[in-house]
Amino acid sequence: MKFTLNPLTAKKFRRFRSIRRGYLSFVLLLTAIVLSFFAELLVNSRALAVRFEGHWYFPSYGRIHTGKEFALPYDYEVNYRDLRERFAAQPGSGNWVLLPLVPYDPLENCYRGETFRPRPPDWRTRHYLGTDQINRDILARLFYGFRKALVFAGAFILLTYAVGVTLGCLMGYFGGWFDILVQRLIEIWSNIPFLFVVIIVSSIVPASIGMSLGVLLFIVVLFSWTGMTYYMRSATYREKARDYVHAAQVLGAGTPRIIFRHILPNVLSTIVTFIPFTIASSISALTALDFLGFGLPPPTPSWGELLRQGTSNLQSPWIVTSAFSALVIVLVLVTFIGEAVREAFDPKKFTTYQ
Question: Please, which residues bridge with residue 184 across strands?
């Protein structure tokens, strides 16, 4: 069975590709997203591969290997950077270690036994963006923090849209007292101060546990679904008056089928155009909460935590510069994508592109 796109949908995709700034931003962001889900192969203190006395080891996704397995006098996890130097000092042994591009873990102290202090970028030691105030590699924390932000943004979109789209469609379809009642409830709910709720929950959760990603996501979604309901309500109310909906009602289609099989596909443009901006707002919200200290618990890698470190250590400008630059680049890319999607799905410009 051959899959073919709807001609109108194909036209919208061609229009999106013709907007070079948005399309290039999409390619760059998609590449970064794909790379982030293989972070263990790019940024990790564990080796990609080890060859020792004729045996192969692949520690990145495998079990923990102790020093005794490599003829070292300790039984905790081996330091692969030291192991590489040891093998390099034994030419002709056939033993070698292949390390990732950035051979540091986002949580590890890269200078054990030394004082805690930020160190500037050093390509010789592969600290390409330097270290933070407790000797952790900044690039590693940025990379894993980016993945954490993506997971948060993806879950945020799914949950927010699931509630907002469903309720908005029901409001627009049924109208009447149901629409008025839900609108009043949304108005009341929207007046609850979001930040105060986060502060209260953060004070209730024990400090030893901290705010988990799930709890933080639940709170943010709880106060973020209301905006989408109004857009979907208006779009559904408009579509409800069209002939195809009346025809479906005459044929005996049930309410769920009419809403989700007939109306919703015709209002997808409203959802699609908001997705990039929702991603940007969710990443900004997570970063802001982490910066204020009400977000993810330490030592979770996050951009907001790096920004807080950077503003507290302005004498080490590489910390705040790295975090701020990463945040700006991602938000700019997402904004360019959102503008291109909005223009591509604008029905007033159908005749502009072929």
Answer: none
Q: Write the pLDDT tens digit of every residue in 327-343.
A: 999 999 999 999 998 88
Residues 279 and 240: their CA atoms lie apart, in Å, by 29
What Å distances lie between residue 180 and 64, 68, 160, 183, 188, CA to CA?
59, 70, 21, 5, 13
What is the arithmetic mean of pLDDT over 49-77?
A: 89
Nearest to 286 by CA among 296, 274, 277: 296
| Rounded distance between C-alpha atoms, residue 187 and residue 342, angstroms | 27
The span from the CA of 228 to the CA of 166, in Å, is 10
Q: Which two structure tokens, joined as six digits, stand for 347?
A: 């029905």
Contact 345, 269 (CB under 8 A): yes
Question: Residue 82 CB: number of other CB atoms within 10 A?
Answer: 12
Strand order in the sheet with 49-52: 55-57, 49-52, 96-98
Measure CA 169 to chain center. 27
**Are 225 and 158 a contacting pair, CB within 8 Å?**
no
> Sign (positive/negative) of CA torsion 77, 81, 84, 85?
negative
> Which amino acid is residue 93, in one-letter code?
S
d(CA 49, CA 98): 5
Closest by alpha carbon to 118, among 296, 298, 306, 295? 306
Express each pLDDT in 77-108 by its tens digit.
999 999 999 999 888 888 999 999 999 999 99
SS (H, E, C) 74-119: CCCECCHHHHHHHHHCCCCCCCEEECCCECCCCCCCCCCCCCCCCC
CA pair distance 26, 57, nearest whole angstrom = 37
Cβ atoms of 137 and 123 within 8 Å: the answer is no
Whether residue 280 contacts residue 331, with contact meaning beta carbons closer than 8 Å, is answered with yes
* Antiparallel, parallel or unpaired: β 55-57 and 49-52: antiparallel
Cβ neighbours of residue 116 closer than 8 Å, sequence gap 6 or more? 133, 134, 135
